[in-house]
Amino acid sequence: MDQLRALKYFAKVVETGSFTQAAQSFSVPASSVSRRIADLERSLGASLLKRSTRVVKITEIGQLYYEQINDILVRLEQSDELVQHYQSEPIGQLRISSMVGFGERILLPLMEEFSQRYPKVVLDISLSDELSTLARDDVDLAIRGGYAPNERVQALKLMNNDFIVVAAPSYLQKHGTPTEPDHLSQHRGLYFRSPAGPLPWLCQVDEQWREVTAPAAGISNEGKWLVQQAIDGQGILMMPNWGLQGFIDSGELIQLHIQPELRITTNTDLGVYLLYQKHRYLVPKIKVAVDFLVARVREMGF
Amino acid sequence: MDQLRALKYFAKVVETGSFTQAAQSFSVPASSVSRRIADLERSLGASLLKRSTRVVKITEIGQLYYEQINDILVRLEQSDELVQHYQSEPIGQLRISSMVGFGERILLPLMEEFSQRYPKVVLDISLSDELSTLARDDVDLAIRGGYAPNERVQALKLMNNDFIVVAAPSYLQKHGTPTEPDHLSQHRGLYFRSPAGPLPWLCQVDEQWREVTAPAAGISNEGKWLVQQAIDGQGILMMPNWGLQGFIDSGELIQLHIQPELRITTNTDLGVYLLYQKHRYLVPKIKVAVDFLVARVREMGF
DNA sequence: AATCATTAATGTCATTTAGACAATAATAAA
DNA sequence: TTTATTATTGTCTAAATGACATTAATGATT
Questions:
Q1: Of A26, A152, A283, B251, which residue is the least packed, with the fewest Cβ within 10 Å?
Q2: What is the largest CA-CA distance in chain B?
Q3: pTM of the prediction?
Q4: Cβ B8 to strand D below 7 Å
């Protein structure tokens, strides 16, 4: 029995909930799928699926088995890919998941050059601040705010992710320039909504962390809108410096220096990290993308 | 092409270094192995093995591929085992690796009862202080001094692993009873040789760690011999309390109370841990062994 | 250097296994 | 109750694997 084929059929049936659909996606008759899975069940001595003519349900043990073999199938495919592309030019689909702000401002502009340089690599970039099922089956590269999930995943620090505080000249003229945290309660704040909620303003006074969030003038997960609001003089904004530097240089925004410093977390070493599975670095498309991103982003000097 | 079969053949050829031997272990002609691997290489578009009639060498990419697919094969087998044994009685081979001292004094006596209770589980216990390739392919359960290698491995604390200091009454009569670390340089020590070298005596004085190891009267990785030497009055011995309690109760050894306390590492939370792969807990033989060991060892009250 | 023994590869045939296609049975929806 | 969809089963065909004998290559032995 070709167990591997049976497993692929089984996985697809679980995912589609249908023998017919699974069969279609492999371009074989449904009867073949039915027979292979029946073989598999017989050889395992357990029933994996509860069939009725209209619905296919998975059994408890079938579900457990599916979760394990699905991972195995993905890894086998990755191993095959490693061998197939070994010492060849970068080619294939490259799925990148990135934080929205970083993606818009830094990643997407950079990847145009990448696409020209490696035309056979088809980019599939998705921007989201949610933390993805990271580098398991759905993503080749992920860019996230600092954390290193486990030892099989390599995390390269692309840049610092220091937050700075800014406001428009017009705002400061009207409301004054705050220089210490206690001033902030008299101001208005613009807040970035992370998946975990709006990012607060924190600062450390007398070795104790305090929240010094000002009344809200606006909250959004859309960084560009927040910046526009800040430029329009609606309030004080705290965001990563790589998203604000251009507006400071142009004079549209002015950086505020509040002592003690404002932060958005008690954690000190914030950074933007590039994440990928260690053992896949030898796949050419992965290798060139990692090398390219690390080089280009670091030479931006944030 | 039945890739899975090809992978099994390939893995065996790598391990044995011979098509003929690999073929024998599967009870098929060598020609079959040759063809399957040729198929595999063709489908991958790379050569995995360098053949000559006498020696089979693995290519660089073949080696990488082998390392990855070998892990995949092991995991697939484990997944199959999970399904096959689901809701059945505990059965099969159970490989346990344990530290020597713990194995001799605690594990082996306990497992006699286990064997009677679960006669269909064939025990394969190996004692070694080396840290094994833990719970990957060669061991189902491992018992080790405190560490938790990664997130897929469950580590249950079986007992404390506190080291205590003892000596024979005759030794103390002759050399006096040390009560503080500075006294030790005038004494003789018996030292356990771990794989990393003889365990030193450390203590914390004025927030600084100092080594206060006494001149050696004996060094061995054989705990029983060290205990005998101590009973014979050869020197002071520091070992886990579960290995010494019996001799203290019988009066053959006397526990010394040195302040500040002696340790063998600067780490505070020493323990004996039972390690196994989380996802295998549902395999009956694993489950009953884990439950049995945790219950029995904990009720010993160390 | 020539021979020998071992080992992997190849050719050919038999057997096993998967797929194609039609027919059947079961069931949810109309 | 009827209808449409879906999984299963039967039968035949095609493909893949194994068996066995033979060949080619190579390291060891004389």
A1: B251
A2: 79
A3: 0.76
A4: no
pLDDT band at B65; cut points 50, 70, 90: very high
The sign of the dihedral angle between the CA atoms of A233, A235, A238, A239 is: negative
Q: Specify the pLDDT at position A119.
A: 93
| Tens digit of each residue's pLDDT (9 = 90 or more) over A64-121 | 999 999 999 999 999 999 999 988 899 998 989 888 888 988 999 999 999 999 999 9
Find the Å distance, CA of residue A1 to C1' of nucleotide C18. Answer: 9
* Cβ atoms of A172 and A254 closer than 8 Å: yes
Per-residue model confidence as pLDDT tens digits over A130-139: 765 554 557 8
Provide, in whole angstroms, the distance separating residue A8's CA from nucleotide D1's C1'. 40
Sign of the CA dihedral with A129 first, then A132, A134, and A139 last:
negative
Q: Is A79 part of the contact surface with chain B (CB cutoff 8 Å)?
A: yes
Q: Are A285 and A91 in contact (CB under 8 A)?
A: yes
Query: What is the crossing angle of helices A3-16 and A19-26, to 10°?
Result: 120
Taking one residue from A and the other from B, the number of pairs with CB-CB distance under 8 angstroms is 76
Q: What share of chain A is helix, strand, coil (3-state, %, to 5)?
A: 45, 25, 30
Burial of A5 per CB tally in 10 Å (0-12, 13-18, 19+): buried
Average pLDDT over residues A139-154: 76
